[in-house]
Amino acid sequence: MTGTAPWWRSAVIYQVYIRSFADGDGDGMGDIAGIRSRLPYLKALGVDAIWINPWYTSPMADHGYDVADFRDIDPMFGTLADAEALIEEAHEHGIRVIPDLVPNHTSDRHSWFQEALAAGPGSPARERYVFRPGRGPDGAEPPNDWLSVMGGRAWTRLPDGEWYLHLFAPEQPDLNWEHPEVHAEFESILRFWFSRGVDGFRIDVAHGLIKDPALPDLASGPGGSGEGTPLPPGQHPFWDRDAVHEVYRAWRKVADEFPGDRAFVAEAWADTPERLAAYVRPNGLHTAFNFDFLVSAWNAKDLRAVIDDSLAMLGAVGAPATWVLSNHDVMRHVSRYGRETVRRWQTNGGNELGPFDRERGTRRARAAALMMLALPGGAYVYQGEELGLPEVEDLPEALLQDPIWERSGHTERGRDGCRVPLPWSRTGRPYGFSPDGASAEPWLPQPADWSELSVEAQTGDPASVLELYRNALRLRRELPELGDGSLTWLDTPADVLAFGREPGFVCVVNLSAEPYALPDHGSVLLASGPLQDRLLAPDQAVWLAV
What is the pLDDT confidence band of residue 437, given thresholds at 50, 70 and 90? Predict the structure, then answer.
């Protein structure tokens, strides 16, 4: 990977879910000190940047996505000085830092919302949020039928009779992006952190900021869920509305005020590749997560269609693709691939999907990693996927902490299973997540069989998932063919994918049930599993020099 293109066009970015990465002070909760202590690990892994889930001051109603102060660090994770030290030390290790930013809503403890509560109906302070009177003779019914992503209705009534909108938890009131003060505040927040050296931002719910001012009922789904008859593109009353791009054009100007190719990545769920590409047009955001790739079934036809559509639509606006297999909101892909069925949102354990074949899931996950890291563009690695961690599906109900569990009336277990703290050492729990002698247990319990999945156990083992990732990322840095660019599909049977990257690289992925004879090649660069007699086994991938 060579050239002078901006770093973000080819970057491999490692997602740090801060409370589960590494505990530096022994309280059972990951923190900035823990990240700083593991920077040598991240450098050796070979990633270009880290994306850190929210570290701001927060009551933690949604694990930090309910922000009370965007310009300070929550004491659970450290201090502002700790964050500044992390940024400096990461840069010394050649690693860029990308914090999360949550512009759709604040915490209900944010000073703005507290001011709005005190000021009362009709006050200017309430105009920064979405307050409305209720419906019905006494205003006892919510302003419309919208439902919260977290479960239940998207409106909460105050004692003074008004309702406020929260597309997520009640502790996360939605901001009113029609208000100029909201725009000015977030541009100021961007400058605050850019001036402290951050290299960009991941934008949470980037598709959700703009609401239809009329707040119409969502007749397209039962109870306002929006899951029924699809609405025309751009016509949903709160998802992916065209006016959101005005916000990001202004943000791009702010980023361009600072040196060093500062960059944004959008968490944007869009109905089509064309709608997603709109977020990364020139003068807009730089990149966007490719969720279609994440949720694709393990078959050649679906994967090739997603890859072709993504490259075509993003290439048409001059943007790179960004590939991702797992994150903190979905079932880990080892556990998805270890079943016959894959659902877009699978947060309730795997019972609905049938039995979990861990060996098959790991085998497919290894192959998927090589495929992802060979595709043109950038990639994201969710902490623990480089260890082959599966979803933890048997967490005791009494320990579940995702607000989805409570908001759903204990019908949806939520996302805790993909957020269990990492195993670093072979020793018993907490496997080096906390320092020796720590008195507190990790905030979520780790499985008893994770010793052999730990960093210590896998380091130096050529057959381990960790060493596969390390070798793949090393080759990705060394080979000019990999990173940004294009691909050429090679002729293969229907259940095999093979593509070339110029001047002399080929990736082959066998998604069939039979071994596949490899094409003529010069040498094997890396394989997800053992090769026998030039045959690629089912659910395996290989990188070839040709």
Answer: confident
C-alpha of 130 from chain center = 27
**CA gap 460, 183 in Å, rounded:** 50
The candidate with the shortest Cα–Cα distance to 143, out of 80, 201, 211, is 211
pLDDT of residue 222: 40
- 221: tokens are 């789904």
- Amino acid identity, position 182: V
State the number of CA atoms in the 13 A half-sphere of 113 facing the CB.
25
12: CB partners within 8 A, 6+ apart: 46, 47, 48, 49, 373, 378, 379, 380, 381, 473, 476
Residues annotated as part of the active site = 204, 257
Residue 486, token pair as written in the block: 């294009």
Burial of 445 (0-12, 13-18, 19+ CB in 10 A): middle
CB burial string 195-225: b at 16+ within 10 A, e below:
eebbbbbbbbbbbbbbbeeebeebebeeebe
Q: What is the CA radius of gyration of the chain?
A: 23
Contacts of 540 (CB under 8 A, 6+ apart): 363, 366, 367, 509, 510, 527, 528, 529
Q: What is the pLDDT of residues 326-357, one digit of tens each?
A: 999 999 999 999 998 655 445 445 456 689 99
- Residue identified by tokens 């725009």 is 183
Q: Which structure tokens are listed for 319? A: 């943007």
Q: What is the pTM of this model?
A: 0.95
Q: Tokens 């071994």 map to which residue?
A: 515
E-assigned strands of 209-335? 263-266, 287-288, 322-324
Alpha-carbon span 47 to 42, nearest angstrom: 6
